[in-house]
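agent> Task received from the user: take the single chain below, predict its 3D structure, and emit C-alpha cells. No templates, no multimer pairing.
agent> Plan: (1) validate residues, (2) run structure prediction, (3) serialize to C-alpha cells, (4) report one or two observations.
agent> Step 1 OK, no nonstandard residues flagged.
tool_call: predict_structure(input=
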Amino acid sequence: MLDDFIHQQRVAYFSMEIALRNEIPTYSGGLGVLAGDTVRSAADLELPLVAVTLASRAGYFRQAIDAQGRQVEQPALWEPREWAQPLDAKIAVSIEGRVVWIGAWLYVLESHMGGRQPVLLFDTDLDENRPDDREITHYLYGGDETYRLKQEIVLGIGGVRLLQALGFEVRHFHMNEGHSALLGLELLRRYEYPPEDLRPGDLPYDIPRVRDLCSFTTHTPVEAGHDRFSYAQVERVLGNFVDPATLKHLAGEDSLNMTRLALNLSEYVNGVAKRHAEISNTMFPGYRVHAVTNGVHPFIWTSEPFRKLYDRYLPSWCHEPEQLVRVDCCIPDGAIRDAHGQARQALIEQVRGRTGVALNPTAPILGFARRMTAYKRPDLLFTDLDRLQAIARQRPFQVVLAGKAHPRDEGGKRLIEQLHAHASALEGIVPVVYLPGYDMEIAQALVAGVDVWLNTPLRPFEASGTSGMKAAFNGVPSLSVLDGWWIEGCIEGVTGWAIGNAAGADDGDARALYDKLEQVVLPLYYDGQDDPAGWVRVMKGAISKNASYFNSHRMMRRYATEAYIR
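)
tool_result: status=success, residues=566
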C-alpha cells in the first residue's frame, strides 16, 4: 500500500496530534482537529501530502464527570493494528545517550471524493526498546518536560529519518506548531558544509537551504505558551546534536525555544488569523508572519440534512465551498429551517441518550464547547445568575456545554465543577446540560444542532478558533467576543453578533453578552416563530458569508500557492 504514495514528491506535514476519526484518540482538541481537516482537504483536492504524527497509543484521556461535577480522567487506549498497517522500516535516534528505535503505522485517510492521503503514526513501543522508551509515544501531552522533549525528538528528528527510510521524496516540510521544530536540526546535519569551506566565525550549516525547505504555522499568541527546554536538559537528552553555537543562534541564548527555532528555520511563517498574525509580528520582531486564517473541512463538519440540501441546490459545494455564497438566492428559507430542525432533533436525542435530560423542542439552544481553561471563560455566561434568570423568564432558552480540562490544569477542572454548580442553581429556570466525554462525535452534533454558537475568550488569547466556522456550515450564527477569526467573520446582525468590541475592556463583556442576548438575539429568534424570515436571514448569512470562506479547502489552496510552491 505504501507504494501508492512514494512515486511523487510530497509535502511532509508534521503535527503532534491529528484527529483522524472519533475512534482513534490521537487528538486533544483544536490543534489536532485542524490537522485532521488539513489532511482531509489535501485528500479532496488531491494535493500530495504525507502527514507525520505520533501513535499516542494511550490517547489523551476519556472524560467522565462524577456526582459533584468533577472531571474524572480515564484511559483512552487504542490498538493501531485495528486501523493501520505496520510498516517494515525502522530508524534509530539517540536519547539520553542510548539508541531508541522508531517504527511507524500507515493510516490511509480516504476522502469521500475519492482522494487518499498517507498518515504515518510513529511508535516506539518496540521489542528493541527498554520499557520506559517504549512509552515515549504512548501519552499525548503526558508526562513531564523531559518526556515532552523525547516525544519531540521522535517526531521531528525521527520523522525526517523515517520518511527517508520509507522512500518518501519530500519537497517541503510544514511544521504545525513548534512541537516538530527539531526536524530543522536534522536537516541542518543533512546540509552541513565541508570543514575546509568554512572561515572563522562561519556557522557550519547551509541554513538558507534548510529555510527554503520549511514552513511553520504558529498557533499561540502568548510567549508563555511556547515549548522551552533548558540547554542542560537538551544536552542530557539529545546530546550535542548540532554545533552548540548554531543551536543558540537559532533557538535562543537562554533556552531552546521551539518556536524561535521554527521561526529561524522556516522561509514561510504564518499565524492562523489576521489578528493573530499581527500579534505574532509584535511578539517576534524581525520576522515576517503572514496570515492564513484557519478553516474547517466542508463535508466532515456539515450535518447530513445540510449535506443533502447543498447537494440538491449547489452540487459542487464540497469541492468548491465558495459556491455557498449563493445560498441566499438559491435555497428556499423553508428548506434551511427544515434541515436545521432535523439537526436540532438529532442533538436533542443525543443529549437525552447521554444524560437523560429532555431539552425543550421549541426554546432556543445556546451551545458552548471548548477546552476548559481560564482564558476561554466558559463561566462568563454565568457571571450574574439573577440577570440570566430574569432574561430567561421573559424569553426562555437552554444551554448545552461540553469540554475537557487538561489533567494538570486544576483551574480548568474547577471551572467544570463550577459550571455544574451553576446548572444546579439555575434548575427550573434555565436548563443547562453538560455533555461529558467531548469528542468529534459530540462536536459534530453540537455545531449542527444548537441555534446560537457562543464563544467568550479573553482577548487576545484566541489565536483563531474554528468551532464557530463549523457551526456556520450548519446555518448556526455565532455570538462571540471579537477575537481570533471572529474579527474577520462577524458582520453584525448578518453572520451573528459581537460581544463588546475588539478593543473593549474585558470586564464589561458579561454585561455586553447579557444585553445582546436580551435585546437582540432572543427577540429575533422569538419573532421568527411568527415571521421566520429575519432569523433565517442570519442563518443564511452565516453560511454564505462565513462557511463559503472559512473552510480548509481555501486554507490549503493558500498554503499550496504561498508556502509550498515558491
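agent> Step 4: summary for the user.
The first strand starts at residue 10 and ends at 14.
agent> Done.
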